[in-house]
Every structure is written in C-alpha cells, then in structure tokens.
Task: inverse folding
C-alpha cells in the first residue's frame, strides 16, 4: 500500500502561483510513477501531469503545458506540482496518484493509489 497526502492548495488570484505537494508513505515511493489529476465541480476527473520513477520523463495535459511543472524528490518521498499563471478554469480539487505501470499510460488508466485531494480556487 502507498498512502498519499496532498497539501498546498488554497485561494489565489488569476495570474498567481501555487505549489502542491504530495507526501508518500508505505511502499518505496521511487518504485511508482506519480501523477496529478483534477476534478472541477460538475465535471469528470481529468489528467494534469505525470512523472516517471526517476523524474526523467514528464507528461502534461495541453491545458497546463508551459504553466505547470511536475517534479519529485525521491529522497523525501514527495512529489510536487508547481502551478504558475493560474486561471479561473484551473479551479478544482487536485489529486495526487501513484502507479506501478508505465508513466505514459497514467493519463488513460486508473492509477493504483490516490490521495484525498486538495482544493485549488482561482479568482478572476
């Protein structure tokens, strides 16, 4: 089992920045790819970004490319999502996820583990 706990959400004005963290415990964090997903009110959960076990490969949804950066620190068992130039449409609950499969599939398959989510609200 892998336990994931997100933090860093909050309320920010459009154009601002937030950094989300995902603290992992349980099994060895570096054995898992990590990803971020989000769910806005009334919408389905969508893929945001993913990172490989070593951090050498990343994937992003088109809607966040150039604004968001995913990273990880395996020594600290923590993943991050740096969000810049935030827009009102980025408002959602953001979820961290971990998966034992190929990082390229994180956007399309159900990850093995989920965090509880953290709220991000962007005001216009």
Result:
């Amino acid at each position: 089992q892998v336990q994931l706990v997100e933090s860093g959400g909050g309320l920010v004005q459009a154009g601002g920045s937030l950094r989300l963290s995902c603290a992992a415990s349980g099994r060895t964090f570096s054995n898992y790819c990590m990803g971020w997903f989000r769910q806005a009110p009334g919408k389905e959960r969508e893929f945001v970004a993913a990172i490989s076990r070593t951090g050498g490969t990343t994937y992003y949804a088109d809607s966040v490319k150039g604004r968001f950066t995913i990273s990880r620190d395996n020594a600290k068992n923590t993943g991050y999502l740096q969000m810049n130039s935030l827009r009102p449409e980025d408002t959602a609950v953001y979820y961290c996820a971990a998966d034992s499969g190929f990082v390229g599939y994180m956007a399309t398959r159900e990850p093995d583990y989920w965090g509880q989510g953290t709220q991000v609200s962007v005001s216009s």
In short: The mean pLDDT is 96. The two ends are 40 Å apart (CA to CA).
